[in-house]
Design a protein that fits this description.
CATH class of the largest domain: Alpha Beta
Number of domains: 2
Strand content: 15-25%
Shape: elongated
Largest sheet: 7 strands, parallel
Strand order of the largest sheet: 10-9-8-11-12-13-14
Radius of gyration: 22 Å
């Protein structure tokens, strides 16, 4: 078996190879042949390649690297119709991210290539980061830091009207209650917050057992002084928080988005911030990444921004490699995949 470890500068090829070697080492079994490819992300931004989104590298680069490979493990390589057509020996692609948006799944299925993904790989990291953004926004941490570095001692932040707010006793709304949202809820509950959840797929019995209250989205927005987004981006959730729904938030509410930029309609935000209707906005994701030079939020008050870093931990990279290596092991043994992206493609034994 020939395997391509198509890593990048985060989920590095050597991490993938080490995880695969550990997973596939069995007495009496011939070791697979490995090839490695290092894609340029994050030193170069990912983007659309062919008909797929959020990819790194080029189709030609990937086609050359896949020569003879029946399996590829990658985070961001662009698996397009052209790539699948040029690589007839390819049978399995394991994508080390929460959603295989860099793979044309319809083309993969047409060419008989099974695809898996790695849900939850960055859940602890993303949850911690979201809570960090909440704290930075509610306690004015980023504002105070920036001002002090330019020589301004913000003693006025102790004035009542400028003071921050505590999570203890606050009502915090989580939009989406998957792996990340559940961890965020546990942390917020430990702070003493009351946690509301809006998620049409959440199990009411499970949310009650977790100590959170499951409500409709509009009700969550009306009641929450802090709202954090954790939903997946679909056509149904695009601009889930539009101008109407943003207008439901209590005066001075804090809004955090570390999930997907297009969950949020950014157009109303500058005016909502200037008017004080929104107390602060903390963003790790954007409708355009990176935001353009004339981005309206650059000069809006009480905005905290980070460059899509929520999942950026060393542990995330190791988990991504381990999850995908386990899927390769299942593929090799002819077992059902744990996280199939195109389950209509059957996995036969490939030993």
């Amino acid at each position: 078996m020939h395997i391509l470890a198509a890593g990048d500068h985060f989920v590095r090829p050597e991490l993938i190879r080490a995880a695969l070697s550990q997973e596939l080492s069995r007495p009496g079994r011939k070791s697979p042949e490995f090839a490695e490819l290092t894609l340029p992300w994050p030193h170069e931004p990912f983007g659309p390649v062919g008909a797929v989104a959020e990819a790194s590298g080029t189709e030609d680069l990937l086609i050359d690297a896949l020569s003879g490979a029946s399996v590829c493990v990658t985070q961001l390589a662009p698996f397009t119709e052209r790539v699948f057509a040029a690589c007839p020996e390819l049978r399995f692609v394991a994508v080390s991210r929460g959603g295989p948006v860099n793979v044309d799944l319809a083309a993969a299925s047409r060419h008989g290539v099974a695809v898996s993904f790695a849900p939850g790989r960055n859940a602890p990291a993303a949850a911690e980061f979201a809570v960090g953004l909440v704290l930075a926004a509610t306690r004015r941490i980023a504002t105070a830091d920036a001002d002090l570095k330019r020589g301004v001692w913000r003693g006025d932040l102790y004035a009542y009207e400028e003071g921050g707010t505590e999570l203890n006793g606050a009502v915090v709304g989580l939009v989406g209650y998957g792996a990340i949202g559940r961890i965020v809820a546990r942390v917020l509950l430990a702070f003493g917050a009351r946690v509301l959840v809006a998620d049409p797929y959440a199990d009411p019995t499970a949310t009650a057992a977790d100590g959170v209250e499951l409500v409709e989205l509009d009700a969550l927005l009306r009641r929450s002084s802090v709202v954090s987004l954790h939903a997946r981006l679909t056509e149904e959730t695009r601009h889930l928080l539009d101008a109407r729904r943003l207008g439901l938030l209590p005066h001075g509410a804090v809004l955090v988005n570390s999930a997907r930029g297009d969950l949020l309609d950014h157009t109303p935000l500058p005016e909502l911030l200037r008017s004080g209707r929104l107390g602060a906005v903390a963003l790790d994701v954007y409708d355009v990444e990176p935001p353009p030079a004339d981005w309206p939020l650059r000069d809006a008050p009480n905005v905290i921004t980070t460059p899509h870093l929520a999942g950026a931990t060393k542990q995330t990279a190791h988990r991504a490699a381990a999850i995908t290596a386990a899927e390769v092991g299942r593929f090799v043994r002819g077992e059902p995949l744990a996280h199939p992206a195109n389950p209509g493609v059957l996995v036969a034994g490939r030993t």
